[in-house]
Amino acid sequence: MFDPSSNQASPDYRVRAHRTLPEPMPVWVRCDRLFLPRPGTMRDVPLWLRAYGINAGACVPGLLRSWHLLNTGGDFWGLVEFAVAARNGSQALELTELVPASILSPRDPDEHDPWASRPPSPRDG
Asked: Radius of gyration of the chain from Cα atoms?
C-alpha cells in the first residue's frame, strides 16, 4: 500500500517517517485485530453488553489519510478515519486512529468485507 522508493532520496527524515497521502485511500480495518479482547473474558460478559457494546469483531471501511513510521522497529501505522457501531446497530462512533498496517487492506468502493469469505489464517491467531 505504500511505495517506500518514492521518498528514499529525500535527506529530510521527517518526509521518510511521515507521509500524507495526496487523496484519502479507501481501506478495510480489521477491528478484531485492533481491539484485542482480554483472554477468557467473553463468558463473563453480560448479554446486554454484548448487544450494546462496540462491535470489536467487525471489519469496517475506512479512509487512510497518512502513513507514519514507528521508532520501535520500523513498522508503518496508518492514520485512518472509520466508524464502529454497537452490535445491534443502535449507535456509531466515528474514530480517527493510528492503525497498524498489518490490519489494513485496500478497498474497492463496491467490495464487501474481505475477511468474511476467507478461512482464518494461522497468522490470525
From this structure: 17
